Amino acid sequence: MHPPEMRRPAWALLVVLLLAPWGILNLEHLFLVSLCGGVGLLYGKHKQLGRQVLLWTCGAFVLVACIPIDDWILLPLEERFPAPQSMPERVDGIIVLSGAENREMTVWRNQPSLSDSAERLVAFVGLARRYPLARLVVSDGPSSSTGEKTLGATTAKKLFGELGLPLERVEFEEEAANTHQNGVNSQLLVAPEDAEVWVLVTSAFHMPRAVGVWRTLGWEVTPYPVDYRASPAMLSVGIDPVGSLGTVALGLREWGALLYYRLRGRTPSVFPGVRS
Fold first, then answer.
1. Domain with 155 in it: what CATH number?
2. Residue 4: which pLDDT band, with cuts at 50, 70 and 90?
């Protein structure tokens, strides 16, 4: 008998293949392939098809650049877990997930180099100072581009040292390669008790999947979303082709990852939300 995920509807598996972070339909790559393919067809026997491919590619690019499709895709993810209006008086532990660092540049330049998700580490340092007795955990992993495990939390360690956060306060989990492993490895590291209050820091668009993983592990956390990307207006119109394309691709990958995690049983639902 096949495992449960193998009996899922074919369309769901197709969507996963198209939209997951490692999917075959990476939006940036798709535009590049369409552009190059269209030009190539113009110099072959299928000139008409080449013109149509270039026309559709150009039209899609204009739509992405001028219409807030990126906000429409990303905003539901970011609004799923609102930022806390007030924080508990007692916090037993704070976890921040990787994604805020440029580890290779940190090593090359010998100074902390951060990515677009820098707010993750900034918020973590702020919460660490606010709760001086809380356990601090950075869940990081091998470099996504080189696979070098030795890099680990290099950026976080250097940044904390420069900001005056004692490294002996921080526990580093440096083996996780994805969100599921972030949760599993962190749970093994800290062995949380049911009565403990833990805060989870990650990007707002990533929070539904992260909370879903933690819930599947039976570990309830207080979400602390940061690094917002989408405009709440939802109707803002501007021309930012590069930024919009990247944000649309980011949102599509996250939706695909949510579906993939549900199919694998790593989250309790496709779109985890606030519990009533």
1. 3.40.50.620
2. very low
